Amino acid sequence: MKINRKSLLLLMVLVAWQTLMAQPVPTHLVIRVKAKDASIFGPHHASKYGAVFVSVRDAVSGKLYAKGLLGPGPEDSASAKQGVVPGGKQDTAAKKTTGRFEAVIDIAEPTLVTAEVVAPTKKRNAAASTGADFTYPAGESVIASTQLWLIPGKDIDGDGQLIEIPGFILDILAPSGGRHLLLDTLAGGRLNVSVSLTMMCGCKITSGGRWNADNIEVAGYLKKNGSKVQATELRLSDTSRYRGIFTIRERGKYELTVTAYDRVTKNTGVDKIVFTVDSSGQRTNAVSANDFEKAVRAGGVQLLDVRRPDEFSAGHLLGAVRANWHDSTEFREQAAHLDKKKPVYVYCLSGGRSGKAADWLAQNGFTQVIDLEGGIKAWKAAGKPLSEPQ
């Protein structure tokens, strides 16, 4: 059979096209993450609130194409620099570099992929769970995902694909989870509750501000031995800080749940802790960063940092002795060098470990133990000094 030149050329083109289509082609994909009704996550987010994990999978087979942490990107284009505010408005003055996840995926044909983001809130009161090949404590992460088609060689770069994370970062600062409280330390039976509330990107909430506290309802619910006993409204006391008061007059095991709800944007957030109240035992007390600082500066106190060695090295109160609560040998050895008749001032990151350490010290003969309410978090929020990182 005779084949003319035109047919031969057409056949060669067809064969070349089929060969080309069978070969995987590197295709770039950029993922960015944005908090609902707030800003695009920046590279600062990981240091303040924890790393943001991204994974990309085949939507049909589940094959993992790429995974990793959201990192800093180059100076962004105008559209990415604009910070989105409630109502869809944009602030063109926002010029911060935003974070991005970049992947090069080899595909030979159009492929539907699922991009999933796990954004942590770095809350301290929780157990554990796993999502998207990355482990965070339960209650400390929010998972969001989207699906999109990737076409071989057609890059989705520049501003890339934007994934929105809903919710608030809600953290009960006081009382601390797992804490053992004494009735006689609660003046008039009053339990003061302090809460931190920010957008998922860490943006602060203020009355009448860009992220308006006037639209947000924050409420606390208290259970005793499994039965609901009280509910109260928490009110804004400072930037991204809410306070409320419960009345406790009986010993028992208590569970405190705090919720946040934005009536306009429908954003939500929840945190929960458990603690016990007893009617007898040695006295311990939790004080504010200001009162804690005054006592330390006045002298005559023993200052104990019960965090891990790496936390201590990153910055601690001047004059503090490290006694890692999670290392029972180290903690007991350091405690043995303290004078039980002199005041012991103790702190940790946010109050959980120091509360337990304070209770232990009180139960072992120390006559005056003072805990830093809210820990180093509260200390730094109040602008107090720390040692230089070692």
3D structure, described in words:
This protein has a 5-stranded mixed β-sheet, covered by helices on one side. Strands 22-26-25-23-24 form a 5-stranded parallel β-sheet. The longest helix has 18 residues, at 5-22. It has helices at 5-22, 45-49, 78-81, 289-298, 309-313, 328-336, 352-363, 375-381; strands at residues 25-35, 53-58, 64-69, 71-72, 83-84, 90-91, 99-107, 111-120, 129-131, 134-136, 141-150, 156-165, 168-174, 180-182, 190-199, 216-224, 227-233, 235-238, 241-247, 252-262, 268-278, 284-287, 302-305, 321-322, 344-347, 369-372. Strand 18 and strand 19 (241-247) form a beta hairpin. The chain folds into 3 domains: 23-166, Sandwich (Immunoglobulin-like); 167-281, Immunoglobulins (Immunoglobulin-like, Sandwich); 284-390, 3-Layer(aba) Sandwich (Oxidized Rhodanese, domain 1). It is built from 8 helices and 26 strands. The model is unreliable at 74-96 and 124-139 (pLDDT under 50). It is α+β, with helices and mostly antiparallel strands.
